[in-house]
Amino acid sequence: MIKMNDNPFYLSEEQIKWVNDTYESMSVDEKIGQLFCPIVFTNEESQLRELVETKHIGGMLFREGPAKQLRKSHMILQNASKIPLFTAANLESGGSGSATEGTYFGSEMLVAATGDVEKAYQLGKVSCKEGATVGVNWSFAPVVDLDINYHNPITNVRTFGNKLDTVINMGKAYIRAAKEEGVATAVKHFPGDGVDERDQHLVTSVNSLSCKAWDESYGIIYNEMIEAETLTIMAGHIAMPAYEEYFDGKKCDNVIPATLSKNLLVNLLRKKLGFNGLITSDATPMVGFCSAMDRATAVPTCIENGCDLFLFNKNMEEDFIFMLEGYQNGILSETRLEEAVKRILATKAAMGLIEKQKEGTLVPEKGELKVINCKEHQVWAKECANQGVTLVKDTQDLLPVSPTKHKRILLELMGDFPSNERVSTSFVEKLKLEGFEVTVYVPEGFEVMGDTVTNFKGKYDLILYIGNIETASNKTVARMNWHTMFGLGNNMPWMIHEIPTMFISLGNPYHLLDVPMVKTFINGYCNSEYVIGAIIEKIMGRSEFTGISPIDPYCGREELIY
Known about the structure:
Its EC number is 3.2.1.52. It is an enzyme of class 3 (hydrolase). Residues 28-345 form the Glycoside hydrolase family 3 N-terminal domain. InterPro entries: GH, Glyco_hydro_3_C_sf, Glyco_hydro_3_N, Glyco_hydro_3_N_sf, NagZ_Beta-hexosaminidase. There is one protein chain. By secondary structure, the protein is of the alpha/beta class. The protein has two domains: 28-371, Glycoside hydrolase, family 3, N-terminal domain (TIM Barrel, Alpha-Beta Barrel); 389-561, Glycosyl hydrolase family 3 (Rossmann fold, 3-Layer(aba) Sandwich). Helix content is 38%, strand content 12%. It has helices spanning 13-25, 28-34, 45-55, 67-80, 108-114, 117-133, 164-180, 211-215, 218-227, 241-248, 262-272, 287-290, 295-304, 316-328, 334-350, 353-359, 375-388, 420-433, 453-457, 529-539, and strands at residues 36-37, 39-40, 59-62, 86-89, 138-139, 184-190, 205-206, 232-235, 238-239, 278-281, 310-311, 390-394, 408-414, 437-440, 462-467, 501-505, 520-523. The strands form four sheets. Strands 2-3-4-5-6-8-10 form a seven-stranded parallel beta sheet. A six-stranded mixed beta sheet has the order 12-17-16-15-13-14, covered by helices on one side. A two-stranded parallel sheet has the order 1-11. Strand 5, helix 7 (164-180) and strand 6 form a beta-alpha-beta unit. The protein is globular and about 80 Å long.
C-alpha cells in the first residue's frame, strides 16, 4: 500500500486526489505505457510525438547531446504528453552527463578523495542544475555502492569508495542538492554492487554478503538514503542469496536479480527497510536481466515482483506487447499494476510536475542554458580536482620533477578509449609549456630486440605512464593490457632501475597491483582537464597533494606500499 502523504511523497489531499482521479481516467494501454522509461535515440519531432501518443510512456532518457537540442527534444516530448514525463539522465559526475557542453565535475571517487562533504553537495548542485536547464528532472545518481572488490570493473571510481560514513554523507549531500534543483534522485544499485568482481551489464552479479554483513553495510546506507527522502531507488541486476534464503527458509538454488525478486524488492526494501518511494529497474537490455528468464515472462514479472518502472527496452513495441499480454494472462496482477502506476503518478506529483505542466515550465526558458559550464561551476570543479588528486606513494623521492633534471620524457598512455587522444594531447601540451621535451610511446615490434639498455637510457630522463582506463559496460576487467610481450620493447616498466619512472592513473585507482615496481604513483580518479591540470601543478611542486584515498590502493598487499 502506498502512503502518499508520507516519506518521500508528502502529497497534499489535492495531489492525492489528482493521482487517484488520473489513474481512474486512464485506459489499460495508458496504464501499461506509464510503466516504461525507454532510451531515445532520435530527435525527430514526428517520432518523438508518436512515442508519447501511441505508447503513453512514463518517462525517457536521452544520451548526452548538445544542450539546445536536448532542451528542444524535451520540450517536444513534454508538450505531447498528457501526463508529465520523467526525463532522466546519468548525472553521476556533472552536467556533462546530459549536455555535452556541461561541466565535467569529476567522478564520485575524486569527490570522496577530497574528504569534503561540501564537494559532494557541489557535485549534486552542478549535475542537477545543469541537467534541469535542458529539461532533465530525474538523476540516475548518486551511486551508493561500496567498492569492496577491487577487481570490479564497473563500480570503481563511480563510487564514493568503500568507507561507510563517506558513502552515506556524500550520498545524502548529493540528494540535498538535487532536491534544491527540483530533480529527483535514483540512488543505485540496490541491493548493492561492488562485492562481486563481475559486472551486471554482462552477467547477473551476486552480492554474496551474509544478512548480518549486509545489514551493517548496504542496509545502513539504504536506510540513510530513505531517511534523506530520495524519491526513487534503482534496483540492479544483482542477486543476493543470503536474503533469498532468509525469506524462503531454504537454500537458494537459483540466481535471481533483484529486478525480478519479490524477496529483495518487497520483503527487504519495502517491508524491512520501509521504502515507500518508487523503485525503478536498471536498464533491462543488460545481460544480468535478460539471462534470468525469457523476456516475455521477465517484462511483466519485473513489475509484478516489485519494480514500479521498467527501464529501457530491447524493442519498445515488443516489450509493450509483453507487458500487456502479461497483464492479460495474469503474470502482472491488477493490484500491482495499480500500485506501480499510482506510485509513478505520486512521484510526479511530489516533484511538482503537475504544477509545472500547468505553468508551462516543465522545460526552463532557453536563457537558463547560460548556467551550463558557468564560471562558478568551473571554479568548483577545479577546486575538487586540486583537493582530490592523491599521491599514493613516492618512495624513490622523485617529486617534484623539473625540466632541469627530467628534460626528456617518454610518455606511455595506457588504455584504449575514445578519450585517449584528448588526454595524451593535454599532457603533452602542458608538459611542453613547462619546458619538457615529450616523446609519446609508439608500440614496437621484434625490431627492438637488439637495442641496448645503455642506448635506451641515453634517450630519456623520465618515464611517465598515464593510465587512462575508464569504467565501461562492455569490459570484464578495468586493468591494463601491455602492447608488447614479456618485457619486449619499452612498454612494460622494466626500466625502473635505469630511468626514474612514474605512474599516473586517471581512472582505476588500483593499477598499482599491476605495476608494483613503480615507486611513484598518483591517483587522479578521472580524466577531466581539471584533474590533468591539478596533476601538473602537483608534480611540479607548486601545489601540495591533499587527496586521501577513499579505497585501499594497495589492494591489501603490503609489498605495494614500498
